Amino acid sequence: MTARVEVSGIGVELGGRRVVDDVSFAAKPGEVIGIVGPNGSGKSTLLRAMIGILTPAAGSVHIDGLDVAKTKARDRARVLAAVLQDATGDFDLTVQDVVMMGRACYKKAFERDDDRDRTVVADALRAVGAVDLRDRRFAFLSGGERQRVLIARAIAQQPRVLVMDEPTNHLDLRHQFDALALPRKLGVTAVIALHDLNLAAHYCDQLLVLHHGRQVRSGTPEEVLNSETLAEVYGVAAAVTPHPVTGRPHITLDPTHQAETGQPPRSWPVPGRDYLMEKESP
Ligand SMILES: Nc1ncnc2c1ncn2[C@@H]1O[C@H](COP(=O)(O)OP(=O)(O)OP(=O)(O)O)[C@@H](O)[C@H]1O
């Protein structure tokens, strides 16, 4: 199951300061939206406001017409699941117990787990490659193992919308790919905050660039990712060329070059001149 997400004019104040200001976007059912931007630009705050754990000073979030702010936590959890940054917790629980917490929104207080819950939990563990961790104590897992278990807990909620804040944190390369491919595999709509722009370009349909709490660019990765944006928003020099295999925008950073002009140095590889694009190959 998937859903349409509409974020309208969200503004959040923290410590007397507006840290997210007038952010709006819409995700069609099944779309993956990437939220990118420098440290402190408001990505996590926006996601927290979206899932209802921060009360926005302005704006609204609707999922298939349902107003998130006016929905009870239990009902919200059946529609929307979140994996937040470093929400590792110190649960003295097994991995199976932690993932089973994702089923709480479907049960009354003290209701026992049934076969359906156990099947959903087993499937969720399989989806993140963590079946062999099932009986381990959550508190003693590595950072990447914990992250995968928390993703499994979100999957066990069987949401229509998945919100993830830096889901690739602590994950090795293979598991980064798996985590970002998950929304499409599950068929859910996703809103994902990401620092890695190359991964964002590959896995997201639309990108929203935040800078000082404001959305300064939005559109497809092709529309948004260019040398000018990277210079203006991140203050770095970078060449953006089509990825030699996928054709998606690929960013090559130049750590030695100051981003005063936003223009890449002349020595950057040029597609077609320095390497062949796949479609040009014989
Ligand atoms: N509880 C709070 N009180 C006051 N200011 C806060 C609070 N939480 C966050 N902020 C500030 O809000 C701004 C946005 O923070 P946020 O965590 O949303 O940024 P971010 O884009 O997710 O950053 P990062 O890439 O570093 O994770 C920052 O300047 C941060 O210091």
From TrEMBL:
Keywords: ATP-binding, Nucleotide-binding, Transport. It comes from the Bacteria. Signal peptide: none annotated. Residues 5-237 form the ABC transporter domain. Residues 244-282 are annotated as: Disordered. PROSITE patterns: ABC_TRANSPORTER_1, ABC_TRANSPORTER_2. One of its GO terms (molecular function) is ATP binding. Gene3D superfamilies: P-loop containing nucleotide triphosphate hydrolases. It holds the Pfam family ABC_tran. SMART domains: AAA. This is Iron complex transport system ATP-binding protein.
